[in-house]
Hints:
The protein has 101 residues and is mainly alpha-helical. The protein is 80% helix and 0% strand. The longest helix has 36 residues, at 2-37. The protein is elongated. The model has no long low-confidence stretch (mean pLDDT 79).
Amino acid sequence: MRYRLTFVAGIVLGYVLGTRAGRERYEQLKKSARRVAENPAVRNTAESAAQQGREFAGKAYHAVSDKVGDKVPESVAGRVRSLRERSAHDGGADDWGTSNT
């Protein structure tokens, strides 16, 4: 019960302090965040992290599929095969128009 009370008190305190800061502070924080996001070093780091994440996900996918391959129901395996074939023909684009680059 004490933890819930502390959590609720934290939310109330955050709300009160946030409303006191007002719109001006919000706009200032938004401008700062935009400046950081547009920084070339930050963008390069984010893209590099995304690329590494895709590589690790691919490795994990292959490791899991090698171990689980025979235990997957045929209906699921057939669906995965059809998705793989479709992505190979589409150049790697998915339903949202993004690519696996």
